[in-house]
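Researcher: Please translate sequence to structure tokens.
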Amino acid sequence: MKLIAGLGNPGKEYAKTRHNSGWIAIDRLAETLNVSISTENWNALVTKTTVHGEQVILMKPLTYMNESGIAVQQAVHFYHIDPKDILILHDDMDLPVGTVRIREKGSSGGQKGMQSIIDALSTNAIPRVRIGVGHSKAGEHDLVPNWVLSGVPKELQSEYDAAIADAAKAAELWVYEPLDKVMNQCNRKPKQEK
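Model: Translation complete:
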């Protein structure tokens, strides 16, 4: 059993924000797999499906970003899922819009949903797909909450959409391919940085 969780916030006002990139990517994956993430369980919306013969739970925590670990931990304990069999999709302000970076483990990099999961599971050895959303002005930390809860500007939308598609593809490949192969196929830089 594997678990793929896309991080975000519930509510229409958050639906198309940078902070909901994990939800947007997992919805794209669900579309590809022809399933709907609509059953409420473990403080999350979930569905169970099969990818290349492997049972997979797709999850969208409903706990709000900063407490994502509550939902993930409940599913992990129920199914006795090993941390290496969990994949987290989340936004990352330290990466430019259009970037996808896949990591096997590491710190949260300040992403509070990822930190909540690390804390809840007492390990940072959790694979994740980081979706670049760009950063607010350097040093102006008071702008961060409004920044992550805003949408991507129109001029960057095509780059963002491409990153979302690659993040969803990475999540599907991760189920049955070695992580280094997924990284080689799905890590991406924005066109202007190539």
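Researcher: Any highlights?
Model: Residues 15 and 113 are 16 Å apart (CA to CA).
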